[in-house]
Amino acid sequence: MNLAFNGLTVVAVSAGAFFFMAGTVGLLRFPDALSRLHTLTKADNLGLGLIVLGLLFQVEGPFAALKLIAVWLLTLLAGATVTQLIARTARPGTPPF
Amino acid sequence: MSDATLYGLCGAVLVGLGLFGLIVNPLPLRKILAFNLIGGGVFLLFGVVARRGAAAGLGGDPIPHALIITGIVVAFAATALAIALLLRLFRETGRATLGSDG
Amino acid sequence: MAFDIGLAVLVLGVAVWTLAARDTFAAVIGFVTYGLLLALVWVRLAAPDVALTEAAIGSGVTGGLLLGASSRLRRAEIQAASEKPGATLRIAAVVLCALVSAGLAAIVLLLPEPAPTLAPEAAANLAATGLGNPVTAVLMAYRAIDTLLETVVLLLALVGIWSLAPDGVWGGFPGRRHQADAEGVLTFVAQLLVPIGILVGIYIFWVGSVAPGGEFQGATILAAMWILAMMAGLVDAPPVSRRWLRLLLIAGPAVFFAIGLAGFAIAGAFLAYPVDYAKLLIVTIEIPVTLSIAATLALLVAGPPERAPK
């Protein structure tokens, strides 16, 4: 059972790391701010979600699992907000907030 | 080499880098950044001493940890005051640098 | 070990980027990244309390302050680029810094073996303080006078910043009045996040007596929530001459000092706690200190007064 959990953790965290890397490649290669923001949020939210999913197999007790999920949700909220604000500033013609 | 010694060397290099940036860069805001880098390096040196003092079931000696926490808070207070002085200087003189003769 | 080498190289790389970046905005972003990487280093050095403080204060609040300053100073930076120092000063600086780094590296490599440590004494006396987190015990019991003086230093920095106000706005509102679209993203997030953040801040403060955390980390989160509410325009920063604000700021150090003086009467020395009441006294000190430090940190970021009081 422990081996199965460890294996699932490794798979999920590796998939999450792959998405983070894909997001960073997009950040470096895409031409303008808006497309970079798009790839960053998509990849990072999914990457962080997969890493949190992988770590859920390693925690003891439901409270630690709830804290991990809360971390993911708060990061989603912060990331989405900041992306919106940056995008509105980067796009000419729209007021920032 | 244990990982504590590795981070100690990293801290030593950070102090040198920060000192270089402090001396060479003409803009006060960059000097403040370099000063904070020096602070980070000094705290790392404390942290290495703390890590080497791991005993009695603790991962590190807690007294240097408390000193580092105090140091981080005081460094932030000093940075805030330095930035307020810099912004006031900019408001009064319209320049963000000190003159070459003081 | 390979991970540690990679992390150390990354920290040094980001530090070089922070110093070498042309644009100050990029340098500030590099500095925030440097702070977050340092927090990872602290976790590797088995110092979770320090990691929380570094991420919150060293990189979070300082980064916010530096970003605001760099945006205000952008116009002035262009004309200053011509004042770069000459080659002789640079070479002399390189030599000096190399010597300093080499000296510190030699000290690190020649540290005494076995390492002197106070961890056994700290762990042995932990039960007498009623706490479970040795770092909090050091901050609030063994070296409580350092923490008392630290709160006073924060207040002095704030007084120094307030004294930089021009005469016409003395005692007025700090910073600009921030306005945000009432239907917009920033207002929505501020309304959603501030209650959650206050809860998280109080939790981190409370759990600091038995687990990594404590009053400085919790106070920083509370301060960040106030700063968020101010930036979204939900509340305006109070004028610095308000009495309730000044009472809030000095409540923490005053209670700390009063309990310290009471230590003469009940336990025989300044800031000594009788063993049965140690935990109660520590919590009684920590609650006003947390609130005071939260207010002080938020006002340090808000800056000197810029609008006249009514």
Helix content, binned percent of chain C: over 70%
Number of strands of chain B: 0
**Which parts of chain C are unreliable, with pLDDT below 50 for 5 consecutive residues or more?**
none
Average of pLDDT of chain C: 91
How many individual β-strands of chain C? 2
Strand content of chain C: under 5%
- DSSP helical segment count of chain B: 3
Give an overview in words.
The complex is a heterotrimer of chains A (97), B (102) and C (310). With 97 residues, chain A is mostly helical. Helices cover 84% and strands 0% of the residues of chain A. Chain A contains three helices and no strands. In chain A, α1 (2-29) runs antiparallel to α2 (33-56) and α2 (33-56) runs antiparallel to α3 (62-90). By secondary structure, chain B is an all-alpha fold. Chain B has one domain: Orthogonal Bundle (Helix Hairpins), CATH 1.10.287. Chain B contains three helices and no strands. Chain B has helices spanning 3-24, 28-52, 62-93. The radius of gyration of chain B is 17 Å and the shape is elongated. In chain B, 64% of the residues are buried. Chain C folds into two domains: 1-84; 119-310, no CATH class. In chain C, 72% of the residues lie in helices and 2% in strands. Chain C has 13 helices and two strands. In chain C, strands 1-2 form a two-stranded antiparallel sheet. The mean pLDDT of chain C is 91. At the B-C interface, α1, α2 and α3 of B face α1, α2, α3, α4 and α5 of C.
